[in-house]
Amino acid sequence: MVKTSNFRQRDRSYIVIGNISQLVKFLASPMVLSVLYLTALGDSAIAYSSVPQKLITSEKQTKTKITQSPNVTQPKPTFFTPKPPAPPLRGVIYYGNQISLNGRILTGAWLQRRLKAGQLTTHISDAAIRQFIGVDLLNSNIATKQPIQWYSSATKPPILVSTLAGGYRYLDMTNFAKTSGWQMQVQGNTLVISTPNTKITDITQSKESSIERITVNLDRPTPWQVNQEPPVKQNQPLSDDPNNPVPKPAVPTTRDWTITLNGIADPVLIQRYTPPPPPPVEKIPTPGPFPENLLKQLLPPNENQQNTPPPPPPLIKQVQVVNNQTIIRLEVPIGLAPLVSTVPNPNRLLIDIRPDPLLPRAITWATGLNWRQQYINLGQERFPVVWLEINPRTVGLKIKPILTNSNTLEGTAPLLQTAQQQLAVAAINGGYFNRNNRLPLGAIRRDGQWLSSPILNRGAIAWNDSGQFYMDRLALLENLITPNNQKLPILTLNSGYVQSGIARYTPAWGANYSPLTDNEIILTVQKNQIINQLPAGKVGQSTFPIPGDGYLLTLRGSGTNIASMLPVGSSVRIESSTNPAEFSNYPHILGAGPLLLQNRQIVLDAKGEQFSNAFIVQKAVRSAICKTTTGNLMFAAVHNRVGGAGPTLAEHAQLMQQMGCVDALNLDGGSSTSLYLGGQLLDRFPNTAARVHNGIGIFLQPR
């Protein structure tokens, strides 16, 4: 969803000119022209979106350069994502977060630098060239040198120089673009790239072993992109059983994929892969009364009991040319996915439909930060795992909990958006939350301050800035001490988990508190003194301000019975500790659960952490965080096994153990599972990732 900020309103003055010649002279004066030019540059529009491609719209261009590029016209008006701060690099003269690729506006970080010798170099984030150009990043063990494959030799791949800055890893594309015949220029916030015209001469389909392959023949290399669409629900035939006339909803059996190439397909190919029009619907007269089940009795037994399965849909649904781009639409069975690669001499795009499309990778992305992905075997099962291994002792590296909103604990957003806004170089989704009211359901502690309390004695991870970690099941023990030294237990702090008793809400919750249940009693505490006590009534009828130098106490259910013990004017104080006490020694904590490993041993007890039976046995996509034998931290995303669904919790624990984890914690999973690195999700397409409440971010300042 795109949200657009309102334009700044300006006072408008109207000048009456006596005649047309005076008006022309007035508008042509240098001062007026300068004012009009600067005014046009001042208008801005900001768009927030996790979807990489954006259509050109009628909004005005944001001024986004450090200095004005000479002899460059202003680009067409566009929607924008928030402009990042200037990259902390010497010699940067232009930078932005939009790329115009042959007329399409895409979200991607780029910059231009002026070197000492006067040479102008252009750098694009590795995320953008992977997603929009189709460049494959190959294995590397040097952070500043990135081998790539793009219609090039696998034995002698091109190597691009990489630079880390402002949350992104930029690759120097200057020579690559020149060799490929690209034209590049800066227009405000946008790097405009024009690639040579390409012809698609043929599209063929073949089968090697059990792998379907589509080969796209090209007359020259060209950018390409692949996108995953929602599953396709097949039409369900009506039941022929009169006793059960309503069929069950159809389960999706295929998924649509689109391959977009910057080139024009031969008209013969478009005609070859144009779907035929649907047959006309014949109007069948309504039959007269018919004896029940007579039709079944007349049919032979085999025909009556067996239904012929429909033929599988064609793999290539359609080939079409739109705005000088060829779009190949595929319908792929669930459980299979396209693996797209390029080869030279002659230039071809290969699309293999496989059950195991994940390519193994081991990339040193930055100092202290490695990107890995491969299939991990567990018995007869193969699971695709994408993970980041982080050395927490790296100079300049920080690990912090990250939240969607800085002013309130309410809210969710795609992890991609949250990480980019906070300039994290890497991140993984974190703990649980209520999807309805978007409130946290687990421990969050940052820089020594509790933002939200743990619930149900579930697993949590704690760490400090020295690279030390601790994992266990966690409880926060808070008590309200009354004037007569009576201890009243506070059950939750800034939590969306509601239960009968006392809850506490601090300014970290937000400026105000709205009751989560009916008939709560709200006590306002300021400077350790109760200054107000009010009934809240029905949910949604009132809000209560949270004092900046205090907090609110909420009495729910049986907790309302103690209101008489806490009259206005009473002095109170808070007593707080953790169980285990070791957690209190760490400034950062994030809770999720269940705990998977401790000291290399599986300690999974999901029932003890009060997870449901359905959750425990479910096979689902999962994420985890763990400490390795070397003291490093690992962010891991585990997706669906080859030919089946994701791991159970028990399998998840075994996978983490097999990958060398000493201690491991399960994080929120399913559609929440998201692994972010430098402007991209490594483990899934952004349109398949759910909004999340919080995560854990990696922040890295280049040395």
TrEMBL record:
<feature type="compositionally biased region" description="Low complexity">
    <location>
        <begin position="291"/>
        <end position="307"/>
    </location>
</feature>
<protein>
    <recommendedName>
        <fullName>Phosphodiester glycosidase domain-containing protein</fullName>
    </recommendedName>
</protein>
<feature type="domain" description="Phosphodiester glycosidase">
    <location>
        <begin position="543"/>
        <end position="699"/>
    </location>
</feature>
<dbReference type="Pfam" id="PF09992">
    <property type="entry name" value="NAGPA"/>
</dbReference>
<feature type="compositionally biased region" description="Polar residues">
    <location>
        <begin position="60"/>
        <end position="74"/>
    </location>
</feature>
<feature type="region of interest" description="Disordered">
    <location>
        <begin position="218"/>
        <end position="254"/>
    </location>
</feature>
<feature type="compositionally biased region" description="Polar residues">
    <location>
        <begin position="224"/>
        <end position="242"/>
    </location>
</feature>
<feature type="region of interest" description="Disordered">
    <location>
        <begin position="288"/>
        <end position="311"/>
    </location>
</feature>
<feature type="region of interest" description="Disordered">
    <location>
        <begin position="60"/>
        <end position="81"/>
    </location>
</feature>
<dbReference type="InterPro" id="IPR018711">
    <property type="entry name" value="NAGPA"/>
</dbReference>
